Amino acid sequence: MGQYIHAFFNDTRVQISLLILVLDFGLGTIAAFMNKEQGFRLSYWSDTLRTDVLGKILPFFLIYGAYLYAKNADLVIPGLDMEVLMNAAWGLLTLAIVGSILKSVSDLGINLPSIVAGPDATTPEIPPNWEEPPPS
Fold first, then answer.
1. In the chain, how long is the greatest CA-to-CA distance?
2. How far is the C-alpha of 83 from the C-alpha of 94, rounded, in Å?
3. What's the predicted TM-score (pTM) here?
4. Distance between CA atoms of 81 and 113, rounded to whole angstroms?
5. Which parts of the chain fold into alpha helices (H)?
6. What is the pLDDT of residues 53-81, one digit of tens each?
7. CB within 8 Å of 24: residues ≥ 6 apart
8. What does DSSP assign to residue 77?
9. In this structure, are residues 28 and 48 in contact, taking their beta carbons and an 8 Å threshold?
């Protein structure tokens, strides 16, 4: 297990992912402090840990482990091995974190098109005229 963790953190893809995750975390924190309407809440940090670490990095960690275990094993289609799957998962992970960075940059007041930095898909927004239903 120690060799697996060592190989994971020595991989350039993982180092790049963790670097942009730290950048996303920092920009998101700065954007939260600069937001006059909502302000900073510790729940933003827990949301980042839940969505980015548990929802993105941990699944990639598991796929990376499967890649180390069965590097050249074909999956269902010949030529589709664990390395192809791992590289695809890393690409999706990178795109997701870069999208979060762009959202944080947009929250800082830099105008980006909504197609690039739209609303955060993981945080549901409460409609302005929403009322809590009465207890039954």
1. 58
2. 16
3. 0.70
4. 37
5. 2-10, 12-34, 42-48, 58-69, 82-107
6. 888 888 888 888 888 887 777 777 777 78
7. 48, 52, 97, 100, 101, 104
8. S
9. yes
